[in-house]
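Good morning C.,

I know you're traveling, so I'll keep this short. The sequence:
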Amino acid sequence: MKTSIHPPLYLLTATVAFFLGTTLSVQGEPESPDRPEPPASIARTAPLTSQEAESDMDRESASLADDVPRTTTEVQIETPKATKRPAPRSPILKTQWGDIAVFPADNPWNQDISDLPVHPDSDAWIRSIGLDRGLHPDFGTVWNGEPNGIPYVVVPPDQPKLRVKFQYDEESDVGPYPIPPNPPIEGGPRAPHSSDRHIIMIDAQNRRLYELFNAIPDPVHGWRAGSGAIFDLSSNALRPDGWTSADAAGLPVFPGLVRYEEVAAGEIRHALRFTVQRTQRAYIHPARHFASRSDDPRLPPLGLRVRLQADYDISAFPKTAQVILTALKKYGMLLADNGSDWFISGAPNPKWQDGALATIKRIKGRNLECVVTGPLIRR
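The tokens, ready to paste straight into the viewer:
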């Protein structure tokens, strides 16, 4: 499981390199980036009073509704009209507080892209990531003694909400956030403070998704994090254009995770999340943010949609892998962050068969293709 490069720090590094007259490049597998420690001042952990909670919920609602106008330049590519197909169905998350749809059926994450045309820059983008590099399932049972993948937790509707001190507060949702005691953290509670340390919380009853990047507890004052985002699971609303989230592209993390329950049921009904080492200074909606200073058109943009070629024979793969690869043909995967090339994200589960997941590595870059889902946005 590799550490991804979160946009604000990556841009800071790139800016320093720019003024020094150097060129940033990544060769081979990326090293875990050195992140500066977030600010020492952090929020308290004590539950909010009812008056404070009401005030913070108002700020949360305002944050969800805010869409700061920003100047953009669009590289126009005609988006094709979809052909008639069966009505889409939302992925479902089963919880003790009821089953909830993970975004509406017509959300981009849930879009069938199997009949969209190949992007004219597909060959160049695939080549830059790696024609002969294999897909890598970045999830499973256990890795380095901790659950392997990006975990999540469903919280009760009355879970006390805590304030979080953000390092990058200008693009973070104020909150507060329903962080339970001892929440599952990506990489485990002892994960390096320089790692992603995602915490994903779902309030099923209120249809809210809360995500934190680089979340670090403080025994005295509370929680601090690099950035945070709140999503309404019943809405297709995007973050303000130009904003990041707990992911580089400004996208939610949870809807792109491969979950064991879906695979065991025999069907994944959404796109998957994946990472690459290098991207260009552009993005494609529903992404809202780029994480690069490079204008090299041969590099892929964040928000890029990639699918497994329709004629690739998956019949020899184990059933677990076939379910995932079928989803890659129908829904594809969204480029969400800078990290290791072709790494696909999923949630840890002790029931995963790691050997079956490993067979996905047989799929190489040359077996994939990029599709047209919208214009490139440059800011």
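Safe travels,
E.
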